[in-house]
Design brief:
The chain is α/β, with parallel strands linked by helices. Helix content is 56%, strand content 16%.
Length: 463
């Protein structure tokens, strides 16, 4: 081996260990380069692991938040569906009561009336009157039950008319004066109408129970910001609204809490303005896009008709009682009025046919099971009058009346309904009918009212 290589080798052997020896100045021993690199790598790996863990935590948090948001949305959706399902079940039960039990009772009542017109002894006549009275009471009870479950006027005439029904109902049941001012152009879909109707009824109940006053005001308007505001305001005892909201509890139980939840499910909010001794105002506020602005004439109209006409009740006609025998006779020279009878329940329709055919001054020229059939028969027969149920399939009695009166002004219409409310009567009168009679009346009352209207209608032309 050459010397230069040996010296180089020796040089390396000498220089390499001297690097690890302490300096003469007493400096600390320096770790080998490989150890520093390893520490750096460990530190870098720890940083990377920390960053990865942080990212995983953030991803997990975002995922959990997303799941919670989705689950909350599902729960809200389920809550809304549950509310709507409850209201649909209410309507279904009310429909069963109306379409079955009430119609059967009406048919019984009509047949009792027909039987009373036959020649029977006075004792039997009295028994029939007692049965008739009990049947009327049953009809009134079932009508009240069906209306409280799901008032038909809400489905027939819309939310504003439903509020009008609430006004009458609270007045009759509790002596509570509810002043209503509602814009009828605001027409929610049926599910929304049902929810808002129930919310408003709950708030008014709260006012009846806790306000210590006998009146409140209900308004429904659309403001300049495209929001609909339904407000219920009273001047009663009031309460601490701020404390109520902070406590997230409600003085009257879960009722008002449920109202707030249901309104929020619709995308709205419930605002409360109240203080002890200064009354209370509840406002349900939600976007107007939830409503449909309809100018359709087929919807019910809420005009200001005279209070006397709207409040006109059914006149009770006293039956003449002879000592032993009751014999009802109709003058043979009376003019025969041609009549069409329209009702979707065959039992009621058959009962009506019996009632009118037993009267010498009426001639039944047709029977219809829905509004469309009644319209077609009216065009063909051109009767003097149509006695028509308000709630029928295919075409409602209200819509059929409107078309008949427009096309055949000489044909008169009298409506029948189990729920002959002021709002329903107002709508039918606006459509051109003479009157809306309650189905729960006796056969005698029905015939008498039809005669009175026909005579009154004929008087101007006779003069």
């Amino acid at each position: 081996m050459p010397i230069k290589h040996l010296s180089h080798y020796e040089y390396k052997k000498i220089k390499k260990p001297s690097a690890a020896m302490p300096s003469s100045s007493g400096a600390k021993q320096v770790a080998p380069i490989s150890e520093i690199d390893r520490l750096k790598e460990d530190l870098q790996s720890s940083k990377q692991q920390h960053a990865f863990s942080q990212n995983e935590l953030e991803r997990t948090r975002d995922e959990l938040e997303s799941r919670v948001k989705k689950r909350t949305g599902k729960l809200r959706s389920l809550a809304r569906e549950l509310t709507l399902a409850e209201e649909r079940e209410r309507r279904r039960i009310a429909g069963l009561v109306h379409d079955n039990l009430q119609q059967l009772l009406v048919a019984v009542l009509l047949n009792i009336g027909v039987t009373k017109t036959k020649n029977h002894c006075y004792v039997i006549f009295q028994e029939l009157e007692g049965i008739e009275l009990m049947t009327k009471e049953c009809i009134d009870i079932t009508r009240s039950l069906a209306s409280e479950l799901s008032p038909s006027v809400l489905h027939q005439c819309g939310l504003a008319a439903g509020f009008g029904w609430l006004r009458d109902w609270f007045g009759e049941k509790y002596g509570f004066n509810l002043e209503v001012s509602a814009d009828e152009s605001l027409m929610p879909d049926e599910d929304i109408s049902i929810t808002l109707f129930q919310c408003v009824r709950e708030i008014v109940f709260n006012s009846v129970k806790h306000s210590s006053v006998k009146s409140a005001r209900l308004t429904m308007v659309c403001d300049d910001y495209s929001f609909v505001n339904i407000s219920i305001e009273d001047q009663g005892a009031g309460f601490d609204a701020e404390a109520l909201v902070l406590q997230d509890s409600w003085k009257g139980g879960v009722g008002l809490f449920s109202v707030r939840e249901r309104v929020e499910l619709l995308g709205g909010v419930m605002l409360i303005d109240s203080a002890p001794g200064q009354g209370a105002c509840f406002t349900l506020r939600f976007p107007a896009k939830l409503l449909k602005n309809s100018g359709n004439e087929d919807r019910c109209e809420n005009s200001d008709l005279g209070k006397g006409a709207l409040d006109q009740g059914l006149d009770e006609i006293a039956a003449a009682k002879e000592p032993m025998w009751i014999v009802r006779k109709t003058e043979s020279h009376s003019p025969r009025h041609r009549v069409i009878l329209a009702d979707d329940h065959s039992m009621v329709r058959q009962g009506l046919v019996r009632v009118f055919r037993d009267e010498a001054d009426f001639e039944v020229v047709g029977e219809a099971a829905n509004g469309k059939e009644a319209l077609e028969m009216a065009r063909e027969q051109e009767p003097d009058i149509i006695v028509m149920d308000l709630q029928m399939p295919v075409m409602s009695g209200l819509e059929a009346t409107r078309v008949i009166r427009r096309e055949l002004p000489g044909v008169q219409v009298i409506g029948l309904s189990m729920d002959a409310t002021k709002e329903s009567r107002r709508s039918l009168l606006r459509a051109g009918a003479l009157d809306l009679l309650h189905k729960g009346g006796s056969a005698e009352d029905l015939i008498q009212r039809v005669r009175e209207h026909l005579v009154a209608k004929a008087l101007p032309s006779a003069s």
